[in-house]
Amino acid sequence: VRGEALKGHLDLLLLAAVRSGPAHGYAIIESLRERSAGAFDLPEGTVYPALHRLERAGLLSSRWSVESGRRRRVYALTRSGRVALERHQEDWRRFAEGVSAVVEG
Amino acid sequence: MSSASGDGRLIAAYLAELRRDLPMGAARRRILAEVGAHLEDGVQAARDSGLPAPDAERRAVERFGSPAELARRLAADLASEGARAAAAVSALALAGVVALWILMGSVARTSPWPGAQLPEELRLPLLVTWVAFAAALAATGLAVALSRAARPRGAVAASVLAVVAIGTSTAACVLVALNGEYLRSEGAVAAIAGVRVAVTLGAALLVARAAVRVVRAPSRREC
To answer: Is residue A50 within 8 Å of A14, Cβ to Cβ?
Structure first.
C-alpha cells in the first residue's frame, strides 16, 4: 500500500495497534504488517515521529521497559487515546461504507 | 556510512549522524536510545531470517531512512514541545513575579497599588510595572494559545515578548526597591527584588533555550 493512501489513517492504525496492550515501536510495526497480511509495512522513519506526536497530544503514554535484557520504549493508550480511537474508528467505518457504496454500487 | 561489515559500525554511524542532527537535551537521549534498541531488534530479526550480518545491518538502517530526514521530522515535534515549554515558563514566571510584587507591596511603607498617594520618585517605575504586567499577561496568553494551536514559532515569539515584559517590570521593581527610604523593611524588599531578578533571569534562559530549539526545527510538521 502506497504511503499516500495511508495519509490520514496513520493515527488510527497506530492507536489500534496498541489497543490490546502496550507495545514498543518494533512490535507495533511488526503487528501492523502481520495483521494487514503484509499490506502495511510502515517505515520506521514515519512511525516514530507519529508515535512521539501522539504521545505529545496525550493519546499515548510511554515508559522504558526491559525485556530479554534489552531496554525498549513501550507505548500504551491513554484514556484520551481510547476515546480518540473510538472516534477515528467510527469516522473510518462511515468513510469505508461510503466509498464501498459508490465504488461497488 | 559506507561500512557494511556487520560489526555494528553501520548502526553506530547512523546514531552518530542522528545525534548530530538533533538538538541537545533529554529528548535527544531518549530518541537515540529508542532508535538504537529498534535497530538492534531489526538486525536480530533479519539475521534470524537468514540474512548475513552486514546485510541485516544495512536493511535495519535503510528502514529508518536518512538520519537527517528522521531528525527533521522528530525535531518538528521537539519544536512543539519547546514552544509549550516556553509558554509554560512564561506563565510560571509571570505568576512568580506577580506573587513577589504582592509580597513586596505588603512590606513596603508606601502602597504600590493603583490610586495610592505615591512619592514622585515611585510614580514612573510603578506605572511601568503595571503596564509591563499587562503586556506580559497578554503575551503569555497569546503564547499558550499559539502553542495549543500547533504554531510553535509564533508561540515562542510571544513567550520571548512575555519575558521581555517581565524583565521590564523587574527592572522597574528594582528601581522601586532602591528607594529604600520609602520602605518599611529595606532588607526584606531587597531580598524580594533579588529573588525576582533570579526568577526573571531563569525564565529568560529557559525561554531562550526553547527559542533556539524551535528556530532550528522546520516550520512545518510532516507525518
So the answer is: yes
Q: Which three cell numbers stand for residue A31?
A: 503487528
Residues B77, A71: C-beta atoms closer than 8 Å: no
- Report whether pLDDT(B169) > 80: yes
B221 contacts chain A (CB < 8 A): yes
Taking 3-state DSSP, the helix, strand and coil percentages for chain A, each rounded to the nearest 5, stand at 60, 15, 25
CB B73 within 8 A of CB A49: yes
Identify any residues that bridge with A77 across adjacent strands, giving them in sequence order: A60
Q: What is the largest CA-CA distance in chain A?
A: 54
Angle at B138 (CA atoms; ends B91, B101), nearest 5 degrees: 55
Looking at this predicted complex, what is its ipTM? 0.85
Spatial distance between the Cα atoms of A92 and B212, rounded to a whole number of angstroms: 39
Q: Report CA-CA distances (Å) from B110 to A53, B102, B133.
A: 51, 13, 19
| B98 grid coordinates | 506577580
Alpha helices in chain B (DSSP H): 9-21, 26-48, 53-64, 67-107, 120-148, 152-178, 186-216
> Count of CB atoms within 10 A of residue B149's CB?
10
Q: What is the pTM of this model?
A: 0.64
Q: How many CB atoms lie within 10 A of CB A49?
A: 24
Q: What is the pLDDT of residues A62-98, one digit of tens each?
A: 999 998 788 899 999 999 999 999 999 999 999 889 9
CB nearest B74 (choices: A43, A49, A73): A49
Q: Which residue of A has its CA nearest to B41?
A: A26
The shortest C-alpha distance from B89 to chain A (Å) reads 18
